[in-house]
């Protein structure tokens, strides 16, 4: 390889670095802890153990006991402490080992955090981030596999974020930490170790992604696929298979569940004339149901050439057996089947 070509290749590698979602989340917290002394992290095993999923690796050694705080297994207790700290002017990051355990603290999240800014007529902000893994993992059965995107996005006063890529994770977490509203930040355990290319811009300490803006991950003109978190990967994989058959899917990564970027979805439907939503959660009153309702009531409905369709998890508690688990959450083949059925091909 000639020297100039090698130089360009090295520079390209620097501009597009491979970063896992885990490391992107770690970078975001590290940068915000450094930037603002009011920011602190608390939760189970976040300090000396470096986090149950190693998201907070190295932060305790760098910032010490006052900024990175290990708590007992008492979600209602430490969530309440975090909400009180936010009301007192700090900016806590409250980690749940899994959002399934946030049910222990839902009174603090909804009644104490979400409603206070409104009930105080804007006098008492509650700048707090509740974060941790959400949705199905692998082999952890029903009590550890719910998706809480619909649960929390039902509640006014909360912002609900569900990132997919490393760039999403970093940019959106930084925005969430800086926001004066309580933010529920729904990660996915199966995405933590997945590497993504991150641009030079995303590697900057000033990089943020505005909450409430979806992103088109793949352009297409035959059908719109809308999803969030890990399901974006499945949509992209399905789109790659369908492209070989001449079917071009537009894949929208929601990134934020509340506020919902309905405009981005409507604009896409006006181009493709078809809509399929894909999510790992249950169908009844789910994220897809809300999107279909919004489209039915809005201007994009008249552009649909076929009924909008939902691809969701099965309406049962998650089974433990792997073969049953695989049949309980969307697979690539389910998305392909729905696309072909919608397009009548």
TrEMBL record:
It comes from the Eukaryota. SMART domains: Transket_pyr. Keywords: Carbohydrate metabolism, Glucose metabolism, Metal-binding, Mitochondrion, Oxidoreductase, Potassium, Pyruvate, Signal, Thiamine pyrophosphate, Transit peptide. Its EC number is 1.2.4.1. Its cofactor is thiamine diphosphate. Residues 19-194 form the Transketolase-like pyrimidine-binding domain. GO terms for molecular function: metal ion binding; pyruvate dehydrogenase (acetyl-transferring) activity. One of its GO terms (cellular component) is pyruvate dehydrogenase complex. It is found in: Mitochondrion. Heterotetramer of two PDHA1 and two PDHB subunits. The heterotetramer interacts with DLAT, and is part of the multimeric pyruvate dehydrogenase complex that contains multiple copies of pyruvate dehydrogenase (E1), dihydrolipoamide acetyltransferase (DLAT, E2) and lipoamide dehydrogenase (DLD, E3). These subunits are bound to an inner core composed of about 48 DLAT and 12 PDHX molecules. Interacts with DLAT. This is Pyruvate dehydrogenase E1 component subunit beta. It comes from Sinocyclocheilus rhinocerous. The lineage of its organism: Eukaryota, Metazoa, Chordata, Craniata, Vertebrata.
């Amino acid at each position: 390889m000639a020297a100039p070509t090698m130089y360009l290749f090295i520079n390209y590698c620097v501009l597009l670095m491979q970063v896992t979602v885990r490391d992107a989340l770690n970078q975001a917290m590290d940068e915000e802890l450094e930037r603002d002394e009011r920011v602190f992290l608390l939760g189970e095993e976040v300090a000396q153990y470096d986090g149950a999923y190693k998201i907070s690796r190295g932060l305790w050694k760098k910032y010490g006991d006052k900024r990175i705080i290990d708590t007992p297994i008492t979600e209602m207790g430490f969530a309440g402490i975090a909400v009180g700290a936010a009301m007192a002017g700090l900016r806590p990051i409250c980690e749940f080992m899994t959002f399934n355990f946030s049910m222990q603290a839902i009174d603090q999240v909804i009644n104490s955090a979400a409603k206070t800014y409104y009930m105080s007529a804007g006098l008492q902000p509650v700048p707090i981030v509740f974060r941790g893994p959400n949705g199905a993992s692998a082999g952890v059965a029903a009590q550890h596999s719910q998706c809480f995107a619909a649960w929390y996005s039902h509640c006014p006063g909360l912002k609900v974020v569900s990132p997919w890529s490393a760039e999403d994770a970093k940019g959106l977490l930084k925005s969430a930490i800086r926001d004066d509203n309580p933010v529920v930040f729904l990660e996915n355990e199966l995405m933590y170790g997945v590497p993504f290319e991150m641009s030079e811009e995303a590697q900057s300490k000033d990089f943020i992604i505005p909450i409430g803006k979806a992103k088109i991950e793949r352009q297409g003109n035959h059908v719109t696929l809308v999803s969030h978190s890990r399901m974006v990967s499945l949509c992209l994989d399905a789109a790659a298979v369908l492209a070989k058959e001449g079917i071009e899917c537009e894949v929208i990564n929601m990134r934020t569940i509340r506020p919902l970027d309905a405009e981005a979805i409507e604009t896409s439907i006006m181009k493709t004339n078809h809509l399929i939503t894909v999510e790992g959660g249950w169908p009844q009153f789910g994220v897809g149901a809300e999107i279909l309702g919004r489209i039915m009531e809005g201007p994009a409905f008249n552009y649909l050439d076929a009924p909008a369709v939902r691809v969701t998890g099965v309406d049962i508690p998650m089974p433990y057996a792997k073969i049953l688990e695989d049949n309980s959450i969307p697979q690539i083949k389910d998305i392909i089947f729905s696309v072909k059925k919608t397009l009548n091909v």
